[in-house]
Amino acid sequence: MNPMLNSSRLRIMQILPSFGIGGAEQMAVHLMVGLAADHDVTAVGLYPGSAGPLEERLTKAGVRVRYLGKKPGLDLRMLPALNRVIRETRPQVVHTHLSVLRYALPVLRRGQVPLTVHTLHNTAEHESDRVGQWIQRFAFRGSVVPIAISQDGATSFERVYGRKCPAIIPNSIPTEDYEKPPEVGRQWRAQQGFDPDAIVLTCVGRLEPQKNPLALVTAFAALRNERAHLVLMGDGSLRTQVIDCIRANRVGRQVHLLGVRRDVPDCLAGSDIFVLGSNWEGNPLAVMEAMAAGLPVVSTAVGGVPELVEEGREGLLVAPGQPADLTSAIRLLVENCDLRQAMGTAARARARAMFGVSGMTGRYAALYRFYLDATTNGSARQSESWESGQAHIARAGGKQS
């Protein structure tokens, strides 16, 4: 490896559409905050800023944040705007997320940046629309290095793009943020008006088809258990349909739509079970957060979820599209306090061991250096075999911790 790259701080630019509250945005912010301790990091948002909690975290960590003021729809002003910010900051690495390659790629192909990488935050079929997939197909055959966030994501990448994904780096979270003392959970429950003996099931996720909140409400309603309450934290296009589903199933007193909240850690501390009924997933941070909070998980076995939750140990997994199976799994934990506690303890232990941000940060830093060094030496880069590339990154970055 080039000793200059190995010893010096890297100039790293991360580009996202915005700094909203989605899992991809949270993962990118966790990564940037972790990288900022040893590298010079610039965060670029295509859309105007919102002064939200993620932007606050970036600023506190010393990450420079730039906003390009994108308007809705196609906005070709982003091409010169990205070109300007790249010329000003001279990054060695540009790391793109979500849909930004359609604007970044024309600028990056000018050769100003030694390395460009792109994280696929979902299965390849759902990560982008047709235009985006066409652009990414072109990018991945050229100079852009793709990164999957789960083995399932890597498999889908090969299915869609016809080649091996050169790296898999699972998402991570600051697990310590979700390890709240018991009194925090008790206080949150009291504020929400839950009885001490209530069993609180929580889902943190957008009210969108991917998360399938309608199936979750239907499965919950089939419990017919007056002690059980379902908390839905998030918002989205299905909100009206979810409300109609709640009314149709006559569970209005037991299902609570809390919308987008900043008190997710407190909510998880006051919950008994985490539930998720998604149709598809990437590597959901919400599951990791729940496990770090010591909650057992009941989820559909989609995407990277089975890589996070060991069936029968930290939770229960069911096939998607089977509300009756989801109901049965939920009922088993609702009716068995000892099993809930045992799985919750195992979940927290797994989160501590595997989901810490330092592991993800180390792997990404190792990946950057690996491909920068290969570029400098005129060697393998993307021709490097998938297996040996993975092995190198794991050795240099260490196991996820």
What share of the residues does DSSP label as strand, in percent?
15-25%
Question: Spans of 5+ residues with little confidence (pLDDT < 50)?
Answer: 1-6
CATH class of the largest domain: Alpha Beta
Strand line-up in the sheet with most strands: 3-2-1-4-5-6
Fraction of residues in helix: 40-55%
The largest β sheet comes out as: 6 strands, parallel
Helix-and-strand structural type: alpha/beta
Question: Helical element count?
Answer: 18
CATH superfamily of the largest domain: Glycogen Phosphorylase B
Question: C-alpha Rg, in Å?
Answer: 22 Å
Can you tell me the CATH architecture of the largest domain?
3-Layer(aba) Sandwich
Distance between the termini: 24 Å
Overall 3D form = elongated
Summarize it.
With 401 residues, this protein is of the alpha/beta class. It folds into two domains: 212 residues, Glycogen Phosphorylase B (Rossmann fold, 3-Layer(aba) Sandwich), CATH 3.40.50; 180 residues, Glycogen Phosphorylase B (Rossmann fold).
What are the key terms here?
401 residues; alpha/beta; Rossmann fold; 2 domains; 12 strands; 15% strand
List the helices and strands and how they pair.
Elements: H1 3-7, E1 11-16, H2 23-35, E2 40-45, H3 53-60, E3 64-67, H4 78-89, E4 93-97, H5 101-108, E5 115-120, H6 124-127, H7 130-141, E6 144-148, H8 151-161, H9 182-192, E7 199-204, H10 213-221, E8 228-233, H11 239-248, E9 255-259, H12 264-269, E10 273-276, H13 285-292, E11 297-300, H14 305-308, E12 315-318, H15 323-334, H16 337-354, H17 357-376, H18 386-397
Helix pairs in contact: 2-3, 2-17, 4-5, 10-11, 10-15, 13-16, 17-18
